[in-house]
Amino acid sequence: MAKSMINEQVHSAAAAGTFTIGGDLTVNRLGYGAMRITGPGIWGPPADEDSALATLRRAIDLGVNLVDTADSYGPAVSEELIAKALYPYPSDLVIATKGGWERPGPGQWTHNAGPRHLAESLEGSLKRLRLDRIDVYQLHAPDNVVSWEASIEALAKLRDQGKIRHIGVSNVIREHVERARRIVPIVSVQNRYSFADRESDFIVDYCEQHSIAFLPWAPLGQAQEAHEALKKVAQDLEASPLQVALAWLLKRSRVILPIPGTSSVKHLEENLAAASLELPQAEYDELSAVSLPATGLRD
Q: Would you name the residues annotated as active-site residues?
C-alpha cells in the first residue's frame, strides 16, 4: 500500500489554496455548508444545538472563511445559529446566503423569487446574521412563475442600495448565468456537482473561463456508495472515499469551492483533511475518465 498522503496533524482549510470572489473577497477554497446544522428534513432546530455551534466554531478555528447558508434552511435556523456561534465575525469571514425558496414543512421546498419576497428575505437574513450587508447573496433557484430577469433585477436594485456586495445564482443552467450577467455582475454559481454527479461539467468550464466561483452543493454526492475506482484510489492513498471525492473537486478547477456540510466536529475535521490530500495526476485522470450516469439538474 502506498504511503498515506494525509498525515496525522490537524488540517487547515488553507491547505486547499485560495480563490478571490468578485475581485475582493479572498477565501480558502474548502468552505463549509451550513444546511445540515438544522433539524431533520432541514426543518426546525438541530437535535443537539451545542454540537452545531461547536462545529461552526471549529470550522473557523481550522481556517474555514467561507460559510454558505440560506434563509430556507430551518427556515431561518441556520442563519441564526451562525450568528450565535460566530458573531462578532472574523474580519476575513465571508458569509454567503440565499433567497428565493420557501419551506412550508420538513423536506418541502417551494419557489418564491418575486421581487417583493426577495427584498423581504434579504432583510430577514441581514437581521438574523446581524449584518448591514451580505457579502454574497444568491438567488436560490429560478422561479417558473417569475421572469428570471425580474428576479435578477430585484437583486441588482438591492445591491445598488448597498445591502448586497456581490450576487450569485444557484440551481441554474448556463443560459440563466448568461442572461443574469447582462443585468449585473455574477460572482458565483452554486449547482449540484460532485465526482459522482457531473451534470454541471459544462457550467464549471464556463465559470472557469470567466473567473466565476463555482460552489458545488452536495459535493460528496453519491460517494457514500462509492464507485470502485474511488475506493481503490482512497485505499492507495490511505484516505477515505469522501476525502478523495473532495480532493478530486479541488483539482477539477481552480474556481471550485467545495462546501461540505455536517453537524459533527469529527466529520468536519475529516472533510477538512481533504485540503491536504495530494491527488496525483494519474489518479485524477483515472477518476475523471470514469463513466457515470446522468442524474439531471435540480431546478
A: 73
Helices (H) then strands (E): counts for the chain: 10, 11
Domain CATH code at residue 158: 3.20.20.100
Asked whether 259 and 216 are in contact (CB, 8 A), the reply is yes
Q: Which domain holds residue 79?
A: 19-224+254-263
The 3-state secondary structure of 36-104, one letter per residue: HHCCHHHECCCCCHHHHHHHHHHHHHCCCCEEECCCCCECCHHHHHHHHHHCCCCCCCEEEEEECEECC
The 10s digit of each residue's pLDDT in 219-263 is 877 555 567 888 899 999 999 999 999 999 999 999 999 999 999
Q: Are the CB atoms for 103 and 71 separated by under 8 Å?
A: no
130-183 pLDDT, tens digit per residue, is 999 999 999 999 999 999 999 999 999 999 999 999 999 999 999 999 999 999
Q: Which residues pair with 169 in a beta bridge?
A: 139, 189
Give me the number of domains the chain comprises: 1
Which residue's C-alpha cell is 433585477? 153
Enter the pTM of the model. 0.94
For residue 9, pLDDT over 60 is answered with no
Q: Would you tell me how many other CB atoms lie within 10 Å of the CB of residue 152?
A: 25
